[in-house]
Write a structure and sequence with these properties.
This protein is an alpha+beta fold and 283 residues long.
């Protein structure tokens, strides 16, 4: 007897007109990842891919190269009931080729929900770190040491300077480009710069999320660490978010970033949920 062959998944570039269909998939499946940023702007690039089975949308994988050699998965979803490994085997080679042409050399995936990790490990990804989410739901602030910095709102024309500070404060997987920082300055609920004698020595960014606000970035120039600048920035960001009616504030940091974890604990943040594995693979 002849066995009927299974239909294969077809991979194609996601177009802007596919956005509504992608949203329906993200809503209907339990296996999904989508950042709060406007991921629709990535559609139309060869690093934004759809997977179809018998013309039905069953998967989406979107990666973005922002700054440096690391691309991050920004959207990922697979319809329930389909085998993750078969989907990855079909879509990852196409994505890797597009990312290489975009000058990325590493692909990173924060596995929110843990649904992709085992399959990623079997395909050569390694867990490089784990992210811990912290939450604060009261309005207390700890005593802060005095420090001679001026805090002010960030300005659009200084995003190049902020990017240089960002690249000095973080390792390449976490770098932000001037374009991303400009979008954050324009759309954030709170974006403050710490300045000393005209020099930008730190910044903090917070934005609205579904249940309150999220501190997306807290950076201090390495030469100015340990001087209380991070605490001043965090305290002022919290005050301004509270003034806007925020009751609940979250943030993330790497599990091994003990300095940041001590700061957040001093401010009354406590961990929630499971740590998120960050998977990386060379392209």
């Amino acid at each position: 007897m002849f066995q009927r062959s299974r239909p294969s998944m077809e991979v194609c570039v996601a177009r802007p007109e596919d956005a509504a269909e992608i949203r329906r998939l993200l809503t209907s499946t339990s296996r999904r990842l989508a950042y709060s940023e406007p991921w629709e702007t990535y559609l139309g690039r060869e690093t934004a891919l759809l997977t179809r089975l018998r013309e039905r949308l069953v998967g989406v994988l979107v990666a973005h190269v922002d700054a440096g050699p690391v691309a991050w998965v920004r959207v990922a979803a697979l319809a329930d009931g389909l085998e993750i490994g078969a989907w990855l085997d079909r879509v990852l080679p196409v994505l890797a080729a597009g990312l290489w042409r975009a000058r990325a050399r590493t692909l990173a995936w924060a596995d929110v929900g843990g649904w992709a990790g085992p399959a990623l490990r079997r395909r050569g990804f390694r867990c490089s770190t784990r992210l811990i989410t912290f939450v604060k739901e009261d309005r207390s602030l700890p005593p802060l040491p005095s420090t001679s910095v001026v805090l002010r709102p960030a300005r659009e024309e200084e995003v190049d300077r902020l990017a240089r500070l960002d690249h000095a404060a973080f390792t390449p997987p976490w770098w932000l480009s001037p374009q991303t920082l400009l979008r954050m300055v324009r759309r954030s609920a709170c974006f403050l710069v710490a300045e000393r004698e005209g020099e930008c020595v730190g910044y903090v960014e917070g934005h609205w999320i579904r249940r309150g606000a999220h501190i997306g970035r807290l950076a201090v120039a390495p030469l100015f660490e340990g001087q209380g600048i991070g605490g001043r920035l965090l305290a002022e960001a919290l005050r301004r978010l509270w003034q806007q009616g925020v009751q609940r504030v979250t943030l993330n940091t790497q599990e091994d970033n003990l300095r940041s974890r001590r700061l957040y604990a001093r401010f009354g943040f406590h961990p929630i949920g499971r740590p998120i594995n960050v998977w990386e693979r060379l392209l």
